Amino acid sequence: MLLSDEIKESPYFKGDSQEPDMQNTDVQKSEVEDHYEVFKKGDGQVDFRTVSWIRASVIFLKIIFATGVLSIPSLMYELGAFPGAVNVVGWTLLNTYCAIVQGNFRNRYPGCHSIADMAQVVGGPILKEVVGFLFTVSYVIVAASGIIGVSTAFNALSLHSICTVWFSFIATIIIAGCASVRKFSHIGWLTWVGFASIYIAVFIIVIGVTTRDRPAAAPQTGDFDLGYRAIGNPNFTTGISAAATIFVSSAATSAFLPVISEMRKPKDYPKAVYMSMSLVTASYLTFSLVIYAWCGKWIASPSLGSAGTTVKRVAYGIALPGLIISGCLYVHVAAKYLFVRILRNSRHLQANTVVHWGTWLSCTIGMAAISFILACAIPIFNYVLALVGALCFAPLAICLPGWLWVSSHGEYLKGNVLRKATYGLHIMLILLGLFMTVGGTYGVIVQINEAYRDGQISSAFSCADNSGSTSS
Predict the structure, then answer these.
(1) CB-based contacts of 242, cutoff 8 Å, min separation 6
(2) Is residue 22 part of a domain?
């Protein structure tokens, strides 16, 4: 059995394609490939590897889609329509490429269950611990954004009937319960419902804003400034925070990796990525540009509040399952990393024992509890996303994929001019990630401080209505 610090290259991987380099029967090949995988197949073991590539693509869609489509429209005013559109297309294309790089590396080393395992292969145990910490923190923070989204929906639907902290607590309990489902394949059918609910809700908002004479948040009588700008004029902190938020809207690609370990055929991973990211890119671009064109600077954040109170309540009612499932997936991903890390190479990993279930439930409840605290401490949706984008996802989704590629393609340095240029571009990818980490974190911290000073955030654990449905 492979030990956790002995992640080895599969004999069936050559370069960036998976072709056998030995003559073997299909049965022998399957046995060898199973030996290198994290989750084994066998009698008496829970079979985790049941996810088809279609279901994987829907899981990826749900991981990515909810936070971005709710946050991007409000950022268009800061950047302007054209720079905003360039950011959306540029970041989603880059994140798609980095997802493929990570998938190729994982299939080369199938013992890698997470991005932290990959970091161990290229940088040793210290880098593994650093990346594992960042990975866990990342999904705990984005789970906090999911809790904020659900509490906002509760406030909108009930017209802020109780303290927002209580709504956040209720959201946390629901999310923790859903996240405690053990297998991605069992969550799979929920992701169909979640994705459809968010998509329909945003479509309703698009229809709602285009049928109004003026934005719901704008003055309802007299002249008003729509605030539509083709090119904005943000300062550094505003611009880098907006870019970080758009980046993070499609940057959760490290959450794809644990799903590969539960796919029936891990080699089908690229198909799932291309399908999901194509739909994400098209949806982000069209929805955000249309909502911004009709609402200008009067866009709400999250964007479901942009078409007036009645339409907002309808949209949040429809989107509620999707918001819950988003938070569920983020908690599940963080908990699954800890779960595998704790029980890896023990019989309890794939056995229905007390230790197995106790460890799993402790991971999900613990991650959800930390997310609840963060959601109440920084209760503004965009700031939470920008913070996690700069502080965690920039190194995970940009720097590390660049490093993985460089470590796997050393021969490019001895190749022709094109190969050397390709190698240099991946070095620049690492530098881009470092810039986003330092610059983005600085910009978000400055903006959070300004929000507290200006009263946008009244206090941590505030009971104030975060949906804008009442004046309280």
Answers:
(1) 75, 78, 79, 84, 87, 234, 386
(2) no
Would residue 191 count as lying in a domain? yes
In a domain, 15, yes or no: no
Residue written as token pair 């911290």: 445
Residue in 308, 287, 295, 305 with CA at minimum distance from that of residue 227: 295
Domain of 195, in residue numbers = 48-218+226-379
Residue 115 contacts residue 95 (beta carbons within 8 Å): no
* Stated pTM of the model: 0.83
CATH code, 57: 1.10.4160.10
Cα separation, 42 vs 67, in Å, equals 38
Which of left, alpha, beta for 75 (phi over 0: left; psi -120 to 50: alpha)? alpha
Total number of domains in the chain: 1
Strand partners, 471: none
Average pLDDT, the chain: 85
Tokens 């291309």 belong to 274
236-247 residue pLDDT tens: 999 998 998 899
Both ends of the chain: CA-CA distance in Å? 60
Q: Distance between CA 184 and CA 250 in Å, rounded?
A: 20
